[in-house]
Design a protein that fits this description.
The complex is a heterodimer of chains A (290) and B (336).
Chain A (H helix, E strand, L loop, with lengths): L1 H30 L7 H18 L4 H27 L4 H23 L10 H4 L4 E4 L2 E4 H23 L1 H11 L1 H6 L4 H23 L10 H15 L4 H21 L5 H15 L9
Antiparallel strand pairs in A: 1-2
Helix pairs in contact in A: 1-6, 1-9, 1-10, 1-11, 2-3, 2-4, 2-9, 2-10, 3-9, 6-7, 10-11, 10-12, 11-12
Chain B lengths: L1 H11 L1 H7 L3 H25 L8 H18 L3 H23 L5 H20 L9 E2 L8 H7 L7 H25 L1 H11 L1 H6 L4 H27 L1 E2 L1 H4 L3 H13 L4 H22 L9 H16 L9 H8 L11
Antiparallel strand pairs in B: 1-2
Classes of the chains: A mainly alpha (290), B mainly alpha (336).
Chain lengths: 290, 336
């Protein structure tokens, strides 16, 4: 029983970090229905940014998170303006094609600059706390992961309020739902798409910055998270930010509970198996509206 | 005319390389044909039936493994093994695909990714197929060209030429089959489901059934491709046949050429595969080796093509250009 409870607690914390990776995708894919295969590469760039600023200037990732988010917002807008705005005119499959190209470009650009070696952020507030635990009954909760999870939760709430409770958020949703009708009421769709790309990119880069405290930093770090993030957004349901959060927590728990009882090689298989199983009963995802 | 010319080029392509000894280009040709064939298969579900399938490589793997097992344990000829592989993968495809056709659009796409993610640990741990140690296909050397074409067993010098023609044969069969499907009732049903699922259902088309059929046709093509690849590589490893490239490359070829058109996959493969092969051969070696310079440029080329022609290169006015090149006046719209 303790093993089970411990696994659930670990899973919930991992789930919060997954939520952070997935939330940027909820905006670009779940809300605006644009496909971005290079999503995880922006996260990897965030990880490298955190590592670089930590090594060169000694900034803590919790600090460098802010300037990196601003820079990556600009990068996201740039990617939309230079590439995706043109690609959008074609079939949706062309977005896959173009972002696979972007994926190759970014990943190997980083390989060319930094090689594929593993790097670690050693000196930071969160890594300094490693070993600190909070005990609840028999369940131990690591403090660093908990802090990371709480940051994730905070960003999530801000985003939820932004998308669901402000005029700007409504304009984003309107653009996603019906581009032409949105134009009629004075919304400029291309600006909305650009902002969505900027926000999504900034958020996933922040996720990378936080993850750099816990995971190795290397150019191929993005793909496995991207695939999980896609499953999480679909499981949560299109256009639902709360759904993404719930799905991410569920994925974290499924992963860590099954890893406690079965060979760890199968932990992703269980996640994707539960996606299919849930999909059979809820074809629109857990909280999806369409 | 154009068809005859293309067929002649395809048939004669390897001859100069065989004579001059640059057999590397025969392998490039083999990869182009294999990828074009897979692209034609993927176009059935992606282009015609309009379903996002991001995980077709499981059928590539099932094909490669089935034929390898039949060859190793029962001594089946590769062509017989290919038939078996096609049957096995179509049956598995039907069984696993029917339930998830309840999911639509992006949800269906992630379900196909899910199948791939589930297949990976199975491939790496299942003892019947030797887990991550893989299966080796022992092939006797020195059978000659005709023997090789009948058994897919080539070793040594004649391998490049032999596999080029094996791939050409399977490619031609796939093209012929897909063309038949495109013009048949089945092809129209697929496109009806893509364009308006509710409308298609209202005139009595069972959309779930036709999605399953489309994916099974794709599975058959991928299984055949997997058999060819297995006998070419002389081994089947789970991380090789379940590699992400078998998902992405055929799809990319279709998109760069033109989605929904048979020529799209062919044109896309002819462009994408040689670019990546030649860049790996030239930039992948030398002082910058291992730094991924070739793939950076490849990625940039892909983005340029996508941004320049978001509807595929077949959307360019090729016929007008060809007409001008041959000195013929372009067709004029009728006046009246």
């Amino acid at each position: 029983m303790t093993l089970f409870l411990q696994a659930v607690a670990d899973g919930l914390q991992m789930g919060l970090l997954y939520a952070l990776v997935a939330v940027g995708l909820t905006i670009i894919w779940g809300l605006m229905e644009m496909i971005n295969f290079a999503h995880g590469e922006f996260m990897m760039l965030g990880m490298f940014g955190a590592w670089g600023l930590s090594v060169s200037l000694g900034w803590d990732p919790l600090v460098s998170m802010v300037p990196l988010a601003v820079i990556m917002y600009g990068a996201g807008v740039l990617v939309y303006r230079l590439l995706m705005r043109r690609v959008q005119r074609g079939e949706i499959f062309t977005q896959i094609f173009a972002t696979v190209g972007l994926f190759f470009f970014i990943q190997n650009g980083v390989v060319a600059l930094f090689t594929s070696d593993y790097r670690f952020v050693n000196k930071s507030l969160l890594t300094g706390l490693s070993g600190a635990n909070i005990t609840l009954g028999d369940v131990r909760i690591g403090v660093p992961l908990l802090v990371g999870g709480l940051i994730a939760l905070a960003l999530f709430l801000i985003l939820y309020l932004l998308i669901d409770r402000t005029d700007f958020g409504l304009a984003l949703q309107a653009t996603a739902e019906d581009r032409d009708a949105a134009m009629l009421v004075g919304i400029r769709p291309q600006r909305m798409y650009a902002v969505a790309w900027g926000l999504g990119t900034a958020l996933v880069a922040v996720a990378g910055v936080i993850l750099a405290n816990f995971f190795a930093v290397y150019p191929q770090a993005g793909l496995s998270f991207t695939i999980l993030a896609y499953a999480i957004v679909a499981l949560g349901g299109f256009g639902s930010i709360l759904g993404t959060l719930m799905a991410a927590l569920l994925v974290g728990v499924v992963q860590s509970v099954t890893a406690a009882y079965f060979p760890p090689a199968f932990k992703d298989a269980f996640v994707f198996g539960s996606y299919i199983l849930i999909g059979l009963f809820r074809p629109q995802g857990l909280f999806g509206r369409f | 005319m154009a068809w005859v010319a293309a067929a002649l080029v395809a048939l004669l392509y390897p001859i100069p390389f065989e004579r001059s000894g640059y057999i590397y280009y025969e392998t490039v040709g083999f990869l182009v044909l294999l990828n074009a064939m897979l692209g034609i298969g993927w176009n059935i579900i992606g282009g015609w039936a309009g379903q996002f399938d991001f995980g077709p490589n499981i059928f590539f793997a099932i094909g490669a493994y089935t034929a390898a097992l039949l060859f190793i344990h029962l001594g089946w000829n590769a062509w017989l093994g290919l038939l078996g592989a096609v049957v096995v993968s179509v049956v598995i495809c039907a069984v696993v695909t029917y339930p998830v056709t309840r999911l639509r659009g992006h949800y269906f796409a992630i379900a196909t990714v899910a199948m791939w993610m589930i297949a990976q640990p199975i491939g790496a741990t299942w003892e019947l197929i030797n887990g991550s140690r893989g299966l080796f296909i022992p092939v006797a050397a020195g059978g000659g060209f005709a023997h090789g074409m009948l058994t897919m067993e080539f070793a040594g010098r004649g391998k490049g030429l032999g596999f080029y023609y094996l791939a050409l044969l399977l490619f031609a069969l796939t093209l012929w089959g897909a063309r038949a499907v495109e013009r048949s009732k089945l092809g129209f049903y697929f496109r009806a489901v893509r364009d308006d699922q509710e409308g298609a259902e209202s005139i009595g088309i069972d959309s779930r059934l036709y999605k399953v059929i489309a994916r099974c046709l794709m599975a058959a093509v991928f299984a055949a491709g997997g058999v060819l690849y297995g006998f070419w590589a002389l081994a089947v490893f789970p991380d090789q046949v379940l590699e992400v490239n078998w998902n992405i490359l055929p799809m990319m070829a279709v998109v760069v050429g033109g989605l929904g058109r048979l020529g799209g996959a062919v044109l896309g493969s002819i462009i994408l595969i040689p670019i990546s092969q030649l860049m790996t051969a030239t930039l992948g070696a030398g002082p910058l080796a291992g730094r991924g310079i070739d793939i950076i440029i490849y990625g940039a080329v892909i983005m340029l093509i996508a941004g320049w022609r978001p509807n595929g290169l077949l959307s360019l006015p090729w016929q007008r250009w060809a007409g001008r090149l041959l000195g013929r006046a372009p067709a004029q719209p009728a006046k009246g």
